[in-house]
Amino acid sequence: MGGKEDTKIGSTFNKSTETTSILFYSDVETSENKKAIKDSIIEFFNIIDTYINKINIEGVFSIDRKAYELFKNTRSIHIEDYLVQGIKSFQYTKENKIEETLFFYPLIGILNKLANDLVNS
User: Fold this and answer.
1) How many C-beta atoms lie closer than 10 Å to residue 117's C-beta?
2) Which candidate, 66, 81, 79, 82, places its Cα nearest to that of 117?
3) What is the pTM of this model?
4) Which of 65, 3, 71 lies closest to 37, judged by CA?
5) Tell me: the pLDDT tens digits for 3-62?
6) Considering only Cβ atoms within 10 Å of each terminal Cβ, which end of the chain, N or C, has fewer?
């Protein structure tokens, strides 16, 4: 789902603990829960950066170093906006239960923005 275990959104989807919490899309509207998802994505980016710093990204994946730098410079902008856009694109209402991870919605927005920026650069 996204989020640390000390938040409602993080603890609800922790498979090692039992919980009776049910999350609804209205729960995503709180700044705490949006921040929890954003923090999860930033942590994911840190893992990627650690890996990328250990390899030759151009040699292994044929990714130009400038393209990766563009990704690094723009990836943390509008994460919460992309989350909301992802939810709206599936026409979920506030009353719908969350039944899937929200982690990928911002990533899709970020990758679409990156693709657009690369085409236009």
Assistant:
1) 14
2) 66
3) 0.76
4) 3
5) 555 555 555 554 555 555 788 888 888 888 888 899 999 999 999 999 999 999 999 999
6) C
Measured distance CA(87)–CA(50) in Å, rounded: 30
What's the CA gap between 25 and 44, in Å, rounded? Answer: 23
For the chain, domain boundaries: 8-119
How distant, in Å, are the alpha carbons of 8, 27, 50, 101 from that of 77? 24, 22, 20, 20
Give me 86's structure tokens: 């992802």
Residue 26, both tokens: 């209205």
105: its two tokens: 């919605």
Helices 104-119 + 65-74 axis angle, to 10 = 130
